[in-house]
Design goal:
The chain has helices at about 25-30, 80-85, 100-110, 125-135, 150-160, 175-185; strands at about 10-15, 35-40, 55-60, 75, 90-100, 115-120, 140-145, 165-170, 190, 195-215, 225-230, 235-240, 255-260, 260-265, 270, 280-285, 290-315, 315-325, 330, 335-340, 350-355, 360, 360-365. With about 375 residues, it is of the alpha/beta class. It has two domains: about 10-190, Alpha-Beta Barrel (TIM Barrel); about 190-365, Endonuclease - Pi-scei, Chain A, domain 1.
Length: about 375
């Protein structure tokens, strides 16, 4: 099916009504991660989309409903045609142009009659979109916003945290489709396999530079970042979301570790903590291994006493250098936050283990030794 109201991943419809004769762009669209293509009924035979891709078909008359693919969604400006499509077992989509309060109120009420509401806004403000999201969030109508740029897609997906359910997009530039596909991959909820690691050594490591990674997001109590001294794994260091007796919480922060450390980033890449700056993107991981991308607001580096924690995870030795202080937490084997200064040999911590070998943060297949 083209999409569901409760889908975690955002819905992207590609408007292909002006792409029927643009073979180069269509071949690219077919091979990227787009699931739906909006086309005119008259052009149906021109599109040779893969079986995984569903069509949203624009119809203009009753006869257009004949001999359509079973999984097609029907798009029309005619309520009568959409009623016929629904009776025939098709999902339905309507487009509403929103330019003022009256048209906005009409749009959400009209949208309740269909499976999908495509909203086209005439002004740049996101306020009418926010109002539509609020009106439709407890309904079965899927909200699709018509957009004109990839940058707009990123904003739309983040409006009111939940964002619209999806977007309708087209372009005549190949790079735009590639960029939108990359955005979708970053937006999707990923998963890493976390393992229980046995602490084999805890050592005071003297004074050194450590960095706090301050993000533009509010992190949850079960979220943190993966920090390690070597490229084959790291420990899950908690966000500053747990009780601190002498200061307010910093829910946007992970007091990550020493400046030499690797930190895990989107697309299975790593970065040295010293490489991060405002605007960098890093991977936030929760205790179940669910991941999301967050943006760095700043990196705060100071001299602090350090602690080296070494663990054995899946027959591999990995370690992390963190600030030697009670308020630094590392997640234990059961997902509980453990105070770094209280961790002892024999404790269990959550860790991530992967293949060794990085060049400028990208995995490579070569012989490499890190100690």
């Amino acid at each position: 099916m083209p999409g569901t109201k409760n889908a975690k991943e955002k819905i992207v419809w590609i408007d292909g009504r002006e792409l029927a004769d643009k073979t180069e762009i269509l071949l690219l669209v077919y091979h990227l991660n787009f699931a739906c293509l909006l086309i005119r009924r008259a052009d149906l035979d021109k599109f040779k989309a893969p079986k995984r891709m569903n069509f949203v078909i624009e119809i203009e008359k009753k006869e257009d409903l004949k001999e359509l693919p079973a999984q097609s969604t029907i798009f029309s400006s005619s309520s009568e045609l959409l009623k016929l499509a629904a009776k025939a077992g098709h999902k339905t989509a309507v487009l509403c142009r929103i330019e003022d309060e009256a048209s906005m109120n009409f749009a959400w009420k009209e949208g309740l009659n269909y499976d999908y509401l495509i909203a086209e806004f005439t002004s740049a403000t996101n306020i009418p979109l926010e109002l539509l999201i609020a009106k439709l969030q407890s309904t079965n109508t899927v909200l699709i916003k018509k957009i004109h740029s990839v940058q707009e897609a990123e904003v739309v997906f983040g409006v009111m945290e939940a964002g619209s359910d999806g977007v309708l997009f087209t372009s005549e530039t190949v790079n735009d489709f590639v960029a939108l596909d990359q955005l979708l991959q970053r937006q999707s909820v990923g998963k890493l396999k976390l393992v229980k690691a046995l602490v084999t050594s805890v050592q005071h490591a003297g004074m050194g530079f450590r960095a706090c990674v301050d993000t533009t997001s509010l992190l949850k109590q079960n979220e943190g970042m993966l920090i390690g001294s070597t490229s084959d794994g790291g420990l899950l260091v908690s966000s500053e979301t747990h009780y601190l007796p002498y200061m307010d919480l910093r829910p946007f922060r992970v007091n990550a570790g020493a400046v030499h450390s690797y930190i895990w980033c989107p697309e299975s890449k790593t970065a040295y903590i010293t490489e991060l700056k405002g605007g960098s993107r890093v991977t936030c991981v929760d205790t179940e291994g669910n991941t999301r991308e967050v943006v760095v607001g700043r990196v705060k580096t100071e001299v602090r006493p350090l602690l080296k924690i070494e663990v054995m995870a899946e027959n591999r030795v990995i370690n992390a250098f963190v600030q030697d202080d009670w308020h630094i937490r590392i997640f234990g084997g059961k997902g509980e936050p453990l105070n770094a200064s209280c961790i002892r040999e024999g404790d269990e911590l959550l860790a991530y283990v992967c293949e060794r070998g990085r060049h400028v943060g990208i995995k490579i297949d070569e012989s490499i030794e890190e100690k």
